[in-house]
């Protein structure tokens, strides 16, 4: 897994500051959504974020609305993963379903500083940083498959195509 | 060790014994969506398949912006109607039925022991009838339409044991606001919340809906009440399918058991801009506001409109405020109309809107200008939710909102007991 620069934030980063509600019906293209990522929390973020960067935050990341755009905008801004002490439930699902890896690891959040570079191994559950190596419970294989496919819709599409081909081969 | 309600329902669906923390692949009994069905349809089309897998499981209710206020919303509704026709989806409720959570319940889809998914964060509501109901996102709703399956983590359970009797002019809304204020907005994140104890069973079904609905504001995955005789009698004439009552074992493993004596709770108000910023009404009384809202999926049912009518009957709302009344559904609307409560509210100066979400999510029908303040019976008061980012929302019970409407500032409803 390649290294990424850390953007560090606090607790309770809500879906409104990740992707403001005023854009939910006017901004529909994921690349356009990315331009507003974290706009009301850190106006600099969307301009300076680089592909592969990593967001590190405190507890209850993504709380509030069920809007899936909160995950979509981070993914399309190039964010490799979000590490947090905890995630709000619907954001957690939306992130995986958008192909954005989410890692729960309080120890890493307490130790890692903004601006540094870290790497994450999702399969083994290891975060490597200058501040040390931190272990986390890896996501289950079934969830990793969704992430590998780039999200739930491409995952389901491939799966259905495979099943269809399998069915035809057996016919 | 026994099992919780949630472990039992998800275990039955997964075909094995499961424990909190496990991830299971399950097929839901119903899947609800509303105006966001237009976005779900777009995701579904990306899968390049022709048919949804189980048409009879899909329930679509148009409620968020009804009737359509802009061309964009009108197009969304049109796309949904065409999709419903194309896919032969039998359970479609067009703009004149009411708010999805009320319509879903009163049409008998919210049933004990059922696994219900909904593309709305307040899908937790159906726990009022002993269902396992949980909110999901749009991609996920599209994939469930296509595959009839999804993954869920079996939640740990917090049991809220309620004792005592409601004091005069204190309601389920005050109790749940008090709980959220004490426990915090993420206390129940990923977790199931069981509302238990004699006081839980004393609550009407409408009051149980208030609490299960607002379990979402503690971060809960699902809320739950034991479906008792009261619930089963109500469901008897409307159940859409066979069901089985599922209850937790007496030796089930709880993450926590929290005790609440409801007889000690005063009327509560959630102050701007978070639902867990809760204070007793006595601490915020006198706060002026511009708009009052009595309605929404939280508090737009008959018992809510009746208590408002009881306070406002024969009086006039304060001339400096505007009061919007929004029944939760056409069925509830008709009953309060026939029983004279709506007449009392209109006579008092309230503006009655058609059943639907109204201004709750800031889309139409009474959004707030910069600097304006609202007091609402809704479930969320996030910054900017009802319009301008520079507006503010207080949340309270229908009684507190009605009493406040009379005086033009936040008022303790016990004055009008």
Give a structural overview.
The complex is a heterodimer of chains A (171) and B (417). With 171 residues, chain A is α/β, with parallel strands linked by helices. Chain A has helices spanning 15-18, 30-34, 45-48, 69-76, 89-97, 106-111, 141-149, 152-170, and strands spanning 4-8, 54-57, 81-84, 102-104, 117-121, 126-129, 132-135. In chain A, strands 4-3-2-1-5-6-7 form a 7-stranded mixed sheet. In chain A, helix 5 (89-97) links the parallel strand 3 (81-84) and strand 4. Chain A starts with a strand and ends with a helix. The model of chain A has no long low-confidence stretch (mean pLDDT 90). Chain B is α/β, with parallel strands linked by helices. Chain B is 32% helix and 18% strand. Chain B contains 15 helices and 18 strands. A 5-stranded parallel sheet of chain B has the order 4-3-2-5-6, with helices on both faces. In chain B, helix 2 (37-46) crosses helix 3 (71-87) and helix 2 crosses helix 5 (138-147). Chain B is globular and about 60 Å long. Chain B starts with a helix and ends in a 10-residue tail after the last helix. The A-B interface holds A 12, 14, 16, 20-22, 25, 59-60, 63-66, 68, 71, 86-90, 92-94, 97-98, 140, 142-143, 151-153, 156-157, 159-160 and B 23, 25, 43, 46-49, 72, 119-121, 135-140, 142-143, 146-147, 151, 185-186, 189-190, 219, 221, 362, 382-385.
Report strand order across the widest sheet of chain B. Answer: 4-3-2-5-6
Mean pLDDT of chain A: 90
Biggest beta sheet summary of chain A = 7 strands, mixed
* Shape call of chain B: globular
| Rg calculated over all Cα atoms of chain B | 21 Å
- Proportion in β-strands of chain A: 15-25%
Strand order of the largest sheet of chain A: 4-3-2-1-5-6-7
Structural class of chain A: alpha/beta
Query: Based on DSSP secondary structure assignment, what is the total number of beta strands of chain B?
Result: 18
Q: Uncertain segments of chain B of ≥5 residues (pLDDT<50)?
A: none
Low-confidence stretches of chain A: none
**Tally of DSSP helical segments of chain A:** 8
Q: Please estimate the helix content of chain B.
A: 25-40%
Spatial separation of the terminal alpha carbons of chain B: 47 Å
Overall strand count of chain A: 7
Total helix count of chain B?
15
């Amino acid at each position: 897994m390649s290294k990424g620069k850390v953007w560090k934030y606090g607790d309770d980063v809500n879906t409104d500051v990740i992707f403001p509600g005023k854009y939910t019906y006017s901004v529909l293209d994921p690349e356009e959504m990315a331009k507003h990522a974290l706009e009301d929390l850190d106006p600099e973020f969307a301009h300076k974020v680089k592909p592969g960067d990593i967001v590190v935050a405190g507890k209850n990341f993504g709380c509030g609305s069920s809007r899936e755009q909160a995950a979509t905008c981070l993914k399309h801004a190039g964010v490799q993963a979000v590490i947090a002490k905890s995630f709000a439930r619907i954001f957690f699902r939306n992130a995986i379903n958008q192909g954005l890896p989410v890692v729960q690891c309080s120890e890493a959040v307490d130790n890692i500083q903004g601006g540094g570079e870290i790497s994450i191994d999702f399969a083994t559950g290891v975060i490597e940083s200058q501040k040390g190596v931190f272990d986390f419970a890896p996501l289950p294989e079934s969830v990793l498959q969704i992430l590998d496919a780039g999200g739930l819709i491409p995952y389901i599409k491939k799966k259905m195509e495979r099943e269809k081909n399998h069915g035809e081969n057996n016919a | 060790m026994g099992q919780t309600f949630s472990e039992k329902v998800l275990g039955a669906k997964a075909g094995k014994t499961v424990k909190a923390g496990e991830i299971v692949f399950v097929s839901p009994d119903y899947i609800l969506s509303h105006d966001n069905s237009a976005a779900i349809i777009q995701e579904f089309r990306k899968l390049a398949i022709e048919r949804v897998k189980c048409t009879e499981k899909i329930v679509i209710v148009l409620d968020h912006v009804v009737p359509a206020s802009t061309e964009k919303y009108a197009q969304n509704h049109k796309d949904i109607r065409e999709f419903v026709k194309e896919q032969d989806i039998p359970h479609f409720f067009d703009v004149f039925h009411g708010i999805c959570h009320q319509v879903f319940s009163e049409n008998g889809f919210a049933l004990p022991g059922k696994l219900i998914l909904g593309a709305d964060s307040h899908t937790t509501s159906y726990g009022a009838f002993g269902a396992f109901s949980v909110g999901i996102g749009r991609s996920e709703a599209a994939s469930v339409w296509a595959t009839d399956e999804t993954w869920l983590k079996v939640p740990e359970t917090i049991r809220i044991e309620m004792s005592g009797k409601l004091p005069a002019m204190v309601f389920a809304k005050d109790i749940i606001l008090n709980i959220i204020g004490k426990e915090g907005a993420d206390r129940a994140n990923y977790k199931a919340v069981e509302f238990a104890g004699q006081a839980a069973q004393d609550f009407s079904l409408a009051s149980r809906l208030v609490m299960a609905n607002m379990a979402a504001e503690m971060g809960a995955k699902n809320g739950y009440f034991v479906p008792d005789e009261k619930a089963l009698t109500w469901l008897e004439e409307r159940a859409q399918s066979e069901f089985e009552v599922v209850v937790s074992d007496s030796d089930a493993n709880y993450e926590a058991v929290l005790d609440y004596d409801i007889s000690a709770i005063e009327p509560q108000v959630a102050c701007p801009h978070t639902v867990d910023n809760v204070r007793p009404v006595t601490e915020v009384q006198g706060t002026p506001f511009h708009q009052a809202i009595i309605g929404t999926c939280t508090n737009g049912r008959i018992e809510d409109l009746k208590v408002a009518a009881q306070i406002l009957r024969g009086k006039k709302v304060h001339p400096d405020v505007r009061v919007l009344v929004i029944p939760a559904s056409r069925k509830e609307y008709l009953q309060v109309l026939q029983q004279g409560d709506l007449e009392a509210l209109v006579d008092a100066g309230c503006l009655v809107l058609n059943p639907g979400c109204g201004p709750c999510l800031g889309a139409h029908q009474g959004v707030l200008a910069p600097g304006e303040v609202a007091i609402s019976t809704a479930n969320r008061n996030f910054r900017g939710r009802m319009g301008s980012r520079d507006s503010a929302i207080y949340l309270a019970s229908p009684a507190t909102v009605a009493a406040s409407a009379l005086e033009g500032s936040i008022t303790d409803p016990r004055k009008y007991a």
